[in-house]
Design brief:
binds zinc ion, disordered N terminus, 11 helices, alpha/beta, Metallo-beta-lactamase, Chain A, globular, 2 domains, 7-stranded mixed beta sheet
């Protein structure tokens, strides 16, 4: 029984339509842009979407892929199958070789990892925001730099050497997933617009995160997702990330978007009320900040805060939980809400040590 089945909706995009992880979903923008939402498995337990967008503008034919999948496991096959299904729906062959552009929403591996497969198979011009260019062009260098910063962060967060090693090993295991590729343009270099695609830089979840608007549809990458509150990590690890930038970017986006009726994220379902979803995300962060302040009535490390917020977690989630807790602690510390409880330990030596924070 084939897992791929054709499913097409001519339903106006303002109405909710049924989603199925194993089908290519079709959407149409208010002025005829065709969007094929292709499901890809990014990693075990993490599904995502690659979008094929076909639109004509001033006699130019745009055949654009938004994001590339992770390149891991069956992700590349998922993408190829999805393109075949989209071709049947469209009534014309569309392959990697016939694309005009690939637009990457941000420099996380589940969104650009497929590029080492795609790049040699397409003449399409590849774009990303300038703050994430190095993630694609100097992948190995970036991993080395970040793993060193990560090690310092984990010491300061209070992890034992064994736990630290297992987190770093897991982080470095992604090294084999991608090799550096060439990028053709940055969004800044083309004035944040490609034909009918308007692009806005929304740093926070990732330094070079963008959202892309086509007519009344917004592609939100991981900036806004239907259910999950997008992951945050401390700016100490990567400049231009951090909760402060993220919350500002949510506001910036809401002032910028114009007439958006449908938002399509890099994961999860479509969103028909962008403002409502953004306010839910803001509320969640406010509550989490409040909880961290309560917990820090007593001195704690980031590892202890992470445990209080998320309980016992395993595998890659250990790092995600620590980064999330770290982003909230950093936000409060930067704004003068917290202070360091064991300053004398930090003053004693030149090596990083576990930091205990408490609320003023
Ligand atoms: Zn991401
Ligand atoms: Zn993602």
């Amino acid at each position: 029984m084939p897992i791929w089945r054709l499913w097409v909706s001519q339903t106006p995009i303002t109405e909710k339509i049924k989603m199925d992880k194993q089908s290519v979903n079709y959407f149409q923008t208010s002025i005829g842009g065709k969007i094929y939402q292709i499901p890809v498995q990014c990693f075990p337990g993490l599904d995502g979407w690659v979008y094929l967008v076909l639109v004509e503008d001033e006699n130019e034919n745009y055949r654009v892929l938004i994001d590339s999948g992770s390149g891991f496991g069956c992700a590349n096959q998922d993408l190829e199958k999805g393109l075949q299904v989209a071709s049947q729906l469209y009534g014309e062959e569309i392959s990697l070789a016939s694309l005009t552009h690939v637009l990457i929403t941000h420099g996380h591996i589940d969104h650009f990892g497929g590029m080492s497969y795609i790049r040699p198979r397409t003449p399409a011009r590849v774009g990303i925001h300038e703050l994430d260019v190095r993630n694609l062009t100097n992948y190995e260098e970036r991993l080395t730099i970040i793993s060193q910063r990560l090690d310092e962060f984990l010491i300061e967060a209070g992890l034992s050497p064994d736990r630290r090693k297992s987190v770093i090993d897991l982080y470095m295991s992604t090294k084999s997933l991608h090799r550096s590729i060439k990028v053709d343009f940055t969004y800044d270099s083309i004035g944040m617009q490609l034909g009918p695609f308007k692009i806005l830089h929304v740093p926070g979840h990732c330094a070079g995160q963008v959202v892309i608007q086509l007519h009344d549809v917004l592609f939100s990458g991981d900036h806004v997702l239907e259910k999950t509150t997008p992951h945050q990590s401390p700016e100490h690890l990567t400049l231009y990330t951090g909760l402060g930038h993220y919350l500002e970017s949510l506001e910036h986006m809401m002032r910028w978007v114009n007439g958006v009726k449908l938002t399509l994220g890099g994961h999860e379902g479509p969103m028909y009320d962008l403002g409502g979803r953004v306010s839910e995300i803001r509320t969640m962060h406010r509550q989490r900040l409040k909880r961290v302040v309560e917990l820090l009535s007593q001195p704690h490390t980031i590892e202890e805060i992470s445990f209080q917020l998320f309980g016992e977690v395993h595998g890659y989630n250990v790092l995600l939980a620590l980064e999330e807790a770290g982003a909230h602690v950093e936000y409060l510390y930067q704004r003068g809400v917290l202070e360091i409880h064991n300053l004398e330990d930090l003053e004693r030596g030149s090596q990083p040590v576990a930091i205990y924070y408490h609320c003023l």
